[in-house]
Amino acid sequence: MVMVMTTPNTALRAVRAGMRMSQDDFACALQAVGHRAGEPNDANKRLVQRWESGVIAAPRPVYIRALEVATGLPIELLGFATLPGAQVRADRKGGATT
Questions:
Q1: What percent of the chain clears pLDDT 90, i.e. is strictly above it?
Q2: Stretch 41-60: mean pLDDT, rounded?
Q3: Above pLDDT 70, what percent of the chain?
Q4: In the chain, N or C terminus with fewer CB closer than 10 Å?
Q5: Domains in the chain and their CATH numbers?
Q6: For residue 50, is pLDDT > 50?
Q7: How many CB atoms lie under 10 A from the CB of residue 94?
Q8: What per-residue string of b and e applies to 2-21 under the rule 16 or more CB within 10 Å gives b?
Q9: Which residues contact 32 (CB under 8 A, 6 or more apart)?
């Protein structure tokens, strides 16, 4: 059996804790942001746990946008890995910049 070590996302955990939100409250806030933006998402406590534990190192674009709006911070400051060519365009719709 191969064990994969993950690095916890302490930045996201610290931001969430600084907002005085539980993981469930944070997930609800992400859902509300998505709803208001016309981009519903299925954020839940388990997803937040997986982000914070490092199991998921790069969220999908719909969650990136919700995370940035909910926290007021760019995704890079929330402790997520950025992939080359995966920057969010200025129009906030995702995709590589050109």
A1: 76
A2: 97
A3: 79
A4: N
A5: 10-78 (1.10.260)
A6: yes
A7: 14
A8: eeeeeeebeebbebbeeeeb
A9: none
Give me the mean pLDDT over the 21-39 stretch: 98
Q: List the structure tokens of 69.
A: 């709006």
Spatial distance between the Cα atoms of 92 and 34, rounded to a whole number of angstroms: 13
Question: In which residue are the tokens 């299925």 written?
Answer: 42
| CA separation for the pair 37, 74 (Å, rounded) | 17
Question: For 20, left (φ over 0), alpha (ψ -120 to 50), or beta?
Answer: left
Predicted pLDDT of residue 87: 54
